[in-house]
């Protein structure tokens, strides 16, 4: 949905540059008649010039828009409003924004300073001048621009902080008094790079905080369809967060025993709670991406869950008691109560969304460019989930970052796998889906529930979580080919192609080749493909037997590692003394990494883990399943394998000499 402001009049103060200029241009581009107010002062509030406002007006008119300049101070609010009435006959919206910022130490302040006159008193005077006109026409939208300094405080800005928080108080009262007249007032606290912030922010940060990234929320809050009133929003770099006040439960204190009850009073004490609108579309939109980010590790996080979260997830991906096979996933008292295997994406996603990505050096995500046609880049995120030292699941996220490409190099890969050519469909399952339940599993992005928020992103309605479609498709495979037995589930790979709208029917088409089920998902109503290049690998009923392993039913190397595990149990202490190292193994097949093993002969009595080491392995080997067996059986010399590129080694290469201690006696396999 493209917001239109045809027939509306907008007054933007401080519109000669920075945020104000971006607002004025954005409104004009969408049909509004704009009063561009700017006194033309410098960053310290001195001087006066008409050049800034005139330049913005010229730019708007050059693009076919309607605008007029005003050079009055906001302390002359009546003059600003009169300009709008004289030129356009009405006033519909106010954007009170002031490009003045003076730093004073508290002890140097005097009460009637310029900061209060311009920011707080100026906001009052301009709004008062427009108020009666808005009441008569029964329409008005007012945006006050506060600051984080006003909300949280900031050293050396006592005057500025007081003025900005005063604007929030003014806005809250205006929201109450104006709502019966369809006059809505909201407050934003933006962070943007400008001439005011370039002296206190690093250049790369200023560049990432472009003023145009703040404009979308201003446009939406000023639109006639927006019913938000009395809200406070922090915004910057495309991210938007709604703030609210909270109060503790408190207690009664009527005598002089405050100290004894202070812990009760203090519990959940009055604080600002950021309503975490996680603007994290899995497409990630756009980012500043440098080589420094490659190879970085996210800080470890803890994820706890019980049967409630497991059941909520099952309900969110469409399970119901109408199907008796579903009861094992919905009733904690069922003798075979289980968690759906795709629940493994939930802790992985939580690790990334709850601040993990923000800690990666060289990865500075910008949340505004998802719909632009720009060259993308691709980066991979690998997340390992452990229960103690046991690897529970491994997730790899392939993230296409729109707008961050253009750095040269090939646009495709020689290793890209060609998707299977689908033959006649062996099985098709359709089911109508909805989004409200799935979000309870931890993806709180309002894009999937809030119509007004979805409209800001250009959608006519909220879209379904991609991972919800993912869960539906995996569940269809589990039922059709594995009798709803989660122990048969081995791996899944999908690519998200298009969004699904809540209420649409998801159709999963399936083809079986051995233990791999190829899948493609479509929206039944439109025939649009939404998941492609997808498959689910299942464990065969007797896949772990030596016969099947050596006949191609699984990885031949698994049998070797199983034998190594048994040997470690028998003589692990002796091996630890001889080897004293941790070996990592990455087994590939058809160029894809399909299995990882850790042989720990450094700690305790030794151990074998399926999956990567939780710390850092001393040496890591990468080899195909077939070449691994050739080496183990003595048919391929390890040194020749290394120099020919069949065996790759990372870490302490000298430790490879100790492989003989580990792999001896396996030639018979």
TrEMBL record:
Its main location: other. It is found in: Peroxisome. Coiled coil: none annotated. GO terms for cellular component: peroxisome. The keyword Isomerase applies. Residues 432-530 form the MaoC-like domain. InterPro entries: HotDog_dom_sf, MaoC-like_dom, MFE-2_N, NAD(P)-bd_dom_sf, Peroxisomal_Beta-Oxidation, Sc_DH/Rdtase_CS, SCP2_sterol-bd_dom, SCP2_sterol-bd_dom_sf. Gene3D superfamilies: Hotdog Thioesterase, NAD(P)-binding Rossmann-like Domain, SCP2 sterol-binding domain. Residues 303-370 form the Peroxisomal multifunctional enzyme type 2-like N-terminal domain. Keywords: Fatty acid metabolism, Isomerase, Lipid metabolism, Lyase, NAD, Oxidoreductase, Peroxisome. The keyword Lyase applies. Pathway: Lipid metabolism; fatty acid beta-oxidation. One of its GO terms (molecular function) is oxidoreductase activity. GO terms for biological process: fatty acid beta-oxidation. It comes from the Eukaryota. Residues 563-664 form the SCP2 domain. Belongs to the short-chain dehydrogenases/reductases (SDR) family. PANTHER family: DEHYDROGENASES, SHORT CHAIN, SCP2 DOMAIN-CONTAINING PROTEIN. This is Peroxisomal multifunctional enzyme type 2. It comes from Sphaeramia orbicularis (orbiculate cardinalfish).
């Amino acid at each position: 949905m493209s917001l239109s402001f045809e027939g509306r009049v907008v007054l933007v103060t401080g519109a000669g540059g920075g945020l104000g200029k971006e607002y004025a241009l954005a409104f004009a581009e969408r049909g509004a008649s704009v009063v561009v107010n700017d006194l033309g002062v410098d960053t310290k509030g001195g001087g006066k010039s008409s050049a800034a406002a005139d330049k913005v007006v010229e730019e708007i008119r050059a693009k076919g828009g309607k605008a007029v300049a005003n050079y009055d101070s906001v302390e002359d609010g009546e003059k600003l409003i009169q300009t709008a009435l004289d030129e356009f006959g009405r006033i519909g919206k106010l954007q009170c924004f002031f490009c003045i910022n003076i730093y004073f130490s508290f002890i140097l302040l005097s009460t009637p300073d310029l900061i209060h006159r311009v920011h707080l008193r100026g906001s009052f005077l301009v709004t008062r001048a427009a108020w009666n006109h808005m009441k008569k026409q029964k329409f008005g939208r007012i945006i006050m621009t506060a600051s984080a300094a006003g909300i949280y405080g900031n050293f050396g800005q006592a005057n500025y902080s007081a003025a900005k928080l005063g604007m929030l108080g003014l806005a809250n009262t205006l929201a109450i008094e104006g709502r019966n007249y369809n006059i809505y007032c909201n407050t934003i606290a933006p962070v943007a790079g400008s001439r005011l912030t370039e002296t206190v922010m690093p250049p790369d940060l200023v560049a990432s905080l472009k003023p145009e990234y703040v404009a979308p929320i201003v446009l939406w809050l000023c639109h006639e369809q927006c019913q938000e009133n009395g809200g406070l929003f922090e915004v910057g770099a495309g991210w938007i967060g709604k703030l609210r006040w909270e109060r503790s439960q408190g207690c009664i204190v009527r005598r002089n025993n405050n100290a004894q009850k202070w812990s009760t009073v203090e519990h959940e004490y009055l604080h600002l709670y950021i309503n975490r609108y996680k603007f994290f579309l899995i497409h990630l939109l756009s980012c500043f991406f440098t080589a420094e980010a490659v190879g970085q590790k996210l800080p470890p996080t803890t994820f706890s869950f019980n049967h409630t979260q497991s059941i909520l997830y099952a309900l969110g991906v469409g399970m119901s008691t109408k199907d008796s096979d579903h009861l094992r996933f919905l009733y904690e008292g069922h003798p075979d109560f289980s968690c759906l295997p795709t629940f493994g994406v939930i802790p992985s996603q939580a690790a990334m969304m709850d601040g993990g990505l923000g800690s990666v050096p060289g990865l500075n995500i910008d949340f505004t460019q998802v719909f632009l046609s720009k060259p993308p880049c691709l980066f991979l995120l690998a997340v390992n989930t452990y229960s103690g030292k046991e690897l529970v699941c491994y997730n790899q996220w392939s993230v296409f970052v729109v707008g961050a490409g253009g750095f040269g190099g090939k646009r495709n890969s020689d290793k890209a796998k060609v998707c299977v050519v689908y033959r006649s469909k062996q099985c098709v399952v359709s089911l109508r889906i909805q989004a409200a339940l799935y979000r309870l599993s931890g993806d709180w992005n309002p894009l999937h529930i809030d119509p007004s928020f979805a409209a800001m992103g250009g959608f006519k309605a909220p879209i379904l979580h991609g991972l919800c479609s993912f869960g539906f498709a995996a569940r269809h495979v589990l039922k059709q080919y594995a009798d709803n037995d989660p122990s048969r589930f081995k791996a899944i790979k999908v690519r998200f192609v298009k969004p699904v709208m809540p209420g649409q029917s998801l159709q999963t088409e399936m083809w079986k080749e051995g233990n791999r089920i190829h899948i493609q998902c479509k929206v039944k109503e439109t025939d649009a493909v939404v998941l492609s290049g997808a498959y689910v690998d299942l464990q065969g009923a007797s896949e772990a037997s030596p016969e099947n392993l050596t006949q191609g039913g699984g990885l031949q190397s698994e049998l070797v590692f199983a034998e190594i595990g048994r040997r470690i149990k028998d003589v692990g202490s002796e091996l630890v003394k001889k080897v004293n190292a941790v070996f990592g193994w990455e087994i590939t097949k058809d160029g894809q990494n399909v299995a990882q093993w850790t042989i720990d002969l450094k700690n305790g009595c030794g151990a074998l883990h399926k999956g990567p080491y939780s710390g850092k392995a001393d040496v890591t080997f990468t080899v195909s399943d077939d070449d691994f067996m050739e080496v183990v059986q003595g048919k391929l010399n390890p040194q020749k394998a290394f120099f020919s590129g069949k065996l790759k080694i990372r870490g302490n290469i000298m430790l490879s000499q100790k492989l003989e201690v580990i792999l001896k006696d396996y030639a018979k396999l």
